[in-house]
Design a protein that fits this description.
- This protein is an alpha/beta fold.
- It folds into three domains: about 150 residues, DNA polymerase beta, N-terminal domain-like (DNA polymerase, domain 1); about 100 residues, Beta Polymerase, domain 2 (2-Layer Sandwich), CATH 3.30.460; about 250 residues, Metal-dependent hydrolases (TIM Barrel), CATH 3.20.20.140.
- The protein contains 24 helices and 16 strands.
- Strands 10-11-12-13-14-15-16 form a seven-stranded parallel β-sheet. Strands 2-4-7-6-5 form a five-stranded mixed β-sheet, with helices on both faces. A two-stranded antiparallel sheet has the order 1-3.
- The radius of gyration is 26 Å and the shape is globular.
- It starts with a helix and ends in a 5-residue tail after the last helix.
- The protein binds one DNA strand of 29 nucleotides through helix 2, helix 4, helix 7, helix 9 and helix 14.
Length: about 600
Amino acid sequence: MEKDQIALILEEIGTLLEIRGENSFRCQAYHAGARALRQLEGDLSALVREKQLQSVPGIGKTLAEKISTLAVTGKLDFYEELRAATPSGLLQIVRLPSVGPKKAMTIYQQLGVSDIAELKAACLDSRVASLKGFGPKTQKKILEGIEFLGQVGQRVRIDQAEAIARAVLDELAEVPGVIRIELCGSLRRRRETINDLDILASSADPGPLMERFARLRGVVEVIGKGDTKCSVTLDRNRYGGASLRINADLRVVRDDQFAFALHYFTGSKEHNVAVRARAQKMGLKLNEYELADTNRSIPCKDEAELFQVLGMDYISPEMRENMGEIEAAAARQLPRLVCLEDLQGTFHCHTNWSDGAATIEEMAEAARALGLKYLGIADHSQSLTIANGLTPDRVRIQHAEIDRLNSRMNGFRIFKGTECDILPDGGLDFTDDVLASFDYVVASVHSHFNQSEDEMTTRIIRAVSHPLVTMLGHSTGRVLLRRDGYKVNLEQVLRAAARHGTMVEINAHPQRLDLDWVHCKRAKSLGVGLVINPDAHRTEEIGLLRFGIDVARRGWLEMKNVFNTQAIDQIAPLLRYKASRAIQSPQLA
DNA sequence: GCCGTTTTCGGCCCGACTGTTTTCAGTCG
């Protein structure tokens, strides 16, 4: 069984134990274990085989045994027994807002209600409101929560969340008395999908901000509102887009509390716990309002000062996942993360020669306008007829066109590339002599997504082992929140890429964003070269590169790990390097 | 259930808010 599946089971065990009223720290341990597993770099089966699971923070003796059992046999008696003893519908019920494990258990024991449908019926004839500790408002919230479940998926893509957040910040910034205001939470950490918006502001007078927030243009419901904290549901259609709902929280603090609150509400939770533990060891107390020793508060005007007092270098929000960043910051060994301004060009863009909307020249001019020094054109290859893939004859004509454009583009270079299909058997969609006519080759899977994991892994490894393949395109084929990627053992693919000097793409399109950040970090440690590509089909999509930078930073990448930070005069010889290396070392081919 | 430069036992974040109460339990982040 794979680690993501096992993580889901650990999470479910944690929730089931909560419903049964188990010690909350024991429940937490299962949730923490699930998260540790998800963020695990490298091969789970190897860790299991070598009995090294316990070396992973958050996984102790018990969890290591249970994970091993699941990994090897795909079954776990402890889990089966828990499931048998607790109606599975309760797992849905505890996810409803304002319902937690205690209320779920009360509903089950007092009313015999064990799934959402029964709960809805119980609310409609007011049986829920009559329970001790419940009332009409709770019942109404539960009903609304059931409706909400029907109409929305929970997470939202980062680009969508960001657009709504910008509109909200613009409205709030006008409110008199606002001193500082920032986005926090997973959006500030630049995760690929976002659950809700967290906004933090400082002001000596929170009242007007709270009022304004509850009346924002996008608000369809006020979930809760106090003196310093307010929660609302926003709908994007109030800002002119298609309907998309997301919850948003605003917290207002005094300005001298802002640095602590910003760190606290940025998270991640795991990072916060670890930082607080570090503070405790230093005899300090850290919470969302202050840092203090036994007799006095230690003022910090911003996060940089906060980290400094705790003996650490500044940790960028993207790295705050308790994945080693605290130790690295304390040892003054944090990487200098790559940033958008470091990018000199990019390699995976389409034009109207295949399924893009713009001409080669328009794409090149758009890239130049963004400050880039070169652009790689990688239109689809011949077998992708649905995207008007290029035949070898059209490739030759396109190359002549690129030569013509290059002859008059001062200080800018268009590189000749292809996004060449990886055929079902791992072969490539052009013959070697055609492939050799390009400056570089991006190899991608666009067909036969439902091969077995072994077939797909073998297929992709064969492609990245080819001496003329420069980089692997979108490595999992996922479309975020719409479809999972194909089944592939990325660990093996990354190892093959490292062995053959083939780069792996970070696809910057916010609908895709593969390689994900965990594998990105793994690729770095395996010595795989990464390249950030927008997969642009229109001129304005070249700007999507910034979402690829987010992934790179979450994956701890530095300039030297990202190929397209190289200056224009370095690029051409480096693109030829792999082919020449293969010729010199034929055993690699 | 995890963890250890004060601990192999005893901590593990805790404050805001809501809805139900009439002083507080449960949820949430």
